[in-house]
Amino acid sequence: MTRKQDLQNTVLDLSHKVVKSFYSRRTETILPLLDEQFLWIGSLSFQWTEGPAAFGQLKRGEGESTSVPDIGNEYYNILSSDGKSWVVCGRFTVSLRVDADVICRLLIRVTLVWSQKGERFSLLHLHSSCAKDYPPAGNSSQETRSFCQYLHENLHENAVSRDMTPETSIRLSLRDEAGHLHYLTSSEILYVKASNQWCHIVTSFDQFLSFGSLTSFEEKLPGFLRIHRSYLVNSQAIEKLRFNRVYLWNHEELPVSKKRYQEIKKVFKPSPPPESLTPPILF
User: For a surface tag, which of 39, 70, 266, 282 has the fewest beta carbons within 10 Å of its beta carbon?
Assistant: First the structure.
C-alpha cells in the first residue's frame, strides 16, 4: 500500500470517527482532532459553532431522549486533496427514538474539510444537512440546539413509527469495488444478489458491489432468507409472498425458487412498509 493510500484510509477513518462521536453526543472524544479555527454548521439556521470549546459544549438538550441514535448505511468519499487539505463528503442514516414507541429514521449528508501537517490531520470544518428541506415550515426557539428537542416541539406527529434496527441487527463494514468503505447495519440491507465472485448489496438508498459469495453473506446476516440461488433477502423487507415471487416494501419483485418456497412460507412474517422512504435528516 502506498503512502497516499495510507493517508486516504486515515482521513476516511477519522471522518467516520467524527460522525459517530458527534451523533452519539460524545464530542469530547474528537476535540483533539479539531483545528483552532474549526467551524461546525448544522441543518437549522441557528445551529453553528466556532472553535473547539463551543463545539465541545454541544450536549443533549433538555427533555431529549437519553437513547443514543443508531447510525448506519455510511458512505464516505474523498472529493479533493492537494497535500495540505482534504475534502470528504459522506452520507448515512440515523434512527432516532423520539419517545417510547416512535422511531424517526432520517438521511444525513456531511462535508468535512481536513488540514494536513505532515502525518497529522486536524478538522477545519464540519457541515451536516438534510437530503431535502424538512419540514417546510415550523416554529422553533433559537435556543433549541438539538434535533431531538426540535422533534418534540414540532414534528412528533410526522415521525416514522417503524423501527428498522431490531436487536438482531449487526454492524458491517463492507468495501465496494472502488475500494470505498460502507458502514451499515444488517437491518438496512434489503437484499443481496450474487454476481460471480461479487455480490450486489441493495439498501433503501444505495446499492454497491462487495466481494464475497452469497453463502458467506448468508452466514453473517441474521434474519435473512435464501429465496433463490442468487438472492438473499431481509425478511423484514418482505411485504408479500407469492408462489414464485416476493414483493418488497420498496416495490421491487424478486424470484423465489420452487425448492425454497415451502421453507420460506413457514418462516415468513410480513412487515408493513415504513411511511414513505423516511424523512430526511436534521441535526
Answer: 266
